[in-house]
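Before the break, one more example. Copy the sequence into your notebook; we will annotate it together after we see the structure.
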Amino acid sequence: MSTTLGANIKLYRKNKGITQEEMSDLLKITPQAISKWESGTSYPDVSMLVPIAQVLGVSTDTLLGYDAMSENQAETERIRAREKELRHSDDNRAVKRLRICEFLSTETNLNPGNFEIIKDYVEMTADLSMYVDPVLEGYFQDQIDHIREIYKDCIRKGAFLISHCTDRNLVIKTHYAMAWIYIHEKDFDHAREHISVLPSIRTDRIKEKIDMELTYFESGFDKMKVCIKNNAGYLFDTVSSMLNTIAQNYGWWGEKEEALEVLDWCEAILKAFKSKKEYVDMDHYLLVRKCVAFFRLVALKKAGDDKATEESYLDFIKEIQEGDYTEKQKADTIKCLEEDIEHYSKYSI
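Here is what the structure looks like once it is written out:
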């Protein structure tokens, strides 16, 4: 028990974002005592379990490793394998998402403490909500009562995750996905509630920045370079996500010249990241690059410029085929673009 308890104290203390010294102040004990608990050389008296759990914001069962609602890795792998099968079915994109949501609704009933799968369910329902939204895709309007039952079930389970899960990353992803469900349901007040607790780029006082500096002062520049490489990857993930949103909305809703100017800007930033290839996941780069290329086609086709649409399409295909990518990356990127074009054929793209 002492090994599990010590490991859990360390895990939940770090998730809480407090140091051993800060925790010791709250419990009125020495930092050395906490260090010994976490290393497994000793463990707290039974009378300390409730105060420790309260400080860490978990139940005593969770602290002791007896949480009946804990994740089951084998179940998670089984469920995700089935998700993958459904993703590769012959159904269209919207139907695939509905089928996966129905499947995950059942699985989260059977595995109510599997927070990984609950998070997957909320994220997939957020995807589904985009296809249901009549302003965007407008699928399943004849099944709207069924869809709303999925939303209700998903939101209830997402709220449970947010209240009970100690993994901050899962909580953030769930807040983000739930905000999207509310946005597509036009419940903007509830969307703002979830958005308000998400991390923000408005401040430069972020963990990754000071962590690089800490590494330099503690271990020198060679070690810092490893942090720089990792954080550059995180930076690309954040920036590319923002660029995708900007490109998408200018492509669909902007006037032609304004849209093309913004899309040129998005493309230039992506290519600047690509120039330092060891800092960027190339599969992710190609996915976002494909998205920007597709939204350029949208902007041109929407403006009625069929010639420029065809030229832009051919230019992108040439760029990918002549690029320094694997044959699989080239084929997957072109296939993904073709699937986008086919899916949105109702818009005559």
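The two ends are 62 Å apart (CA to CA). Residues 59 and 343 are 47 Å apart (CA to CA). Try to locate both features in your own notes.
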